[in-house]
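hiii, so i know i said id send this last week but things got crazy w the move. better late than never?? heres the sequnce for the chain we talked about at the cafe, plus the structure i predicted for it. fair warning i was half asleep when i ran it
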Amino acid sequence: MKEILKSMGVQELFNVRGKIVLVSGSGGLGSSIAMAFARGGASVFVADCLENKLQELQAAAVKENVRISTLLMDVSDKASVEAGFKALLEKTGRLDVVVHTAGMGKNEAATDCEEMDIRRTIDVNLIGTILVNQQAARIMKEQRYGKIVNLGSIAGIMAHTLRSMPYAASKAGVHQVTRSFAAEMAQYGVNVNCVAPAWINTPLIAKKDEAYYENIRKSVPFQRMGEPDEILGAVFFLSTDASHFVTGQVILVDGGWSVTKALA
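okay and structure toks below
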């Protein structure tokens, strides 16, 4: 156990000031997480394959008087991931936290999913997680410390809708990738965990018909979707010394949905 933990107060346990943090993915959750780390005094890098999204995030950071650096990186491409991590390490010399949020999904009946869409979903959500975790783990293994937090989903736990097979399969894989890395990396002082949200109010589920949102309200005990900021507590817990003895866990942030029934 780190000796410093014995003398830390609660606020210190959750402190991210001065940490080098990489957030992969600049979507709704990635942006919210990156901004929260920046507000907390961390040195934040955000990686994405969409340059316009990175520019939008940087503009938002400037408005709040915080700084976010960006990296152009496609998580489904090994060479791109390697180059992104290399560029970060050349600038910082170390890496304390990786929060991997990049993902995608498409809703189709399981019998109607096109092979191209299935492969793209697996490439981004599952292969992307493996590639990012590999690079992060190699760096953190040498450091003998570090925190990796992957974004899974309730879809990887249970069938949360009846039209989301590729996404669900990919997120179940993310959960097991998390456990596998956690088991291997614990001896090097590296924690690897996962946060699995339910429906969160992000662009990924925007512009659905009203019946979709009504079904969510009926199935979630809090009778609403979650907001991006509502996963920050779990992410910060798993990114700081507060979770020093926690690894290989999938923490559900689902408003109680996991005690109910899937949508029809």
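btw Helices lie at 10-13, 28-39, 51-63, 78-92, 115-143, 165-185, 210-219, 232-239. thought thatd interest u
miss u guys!!
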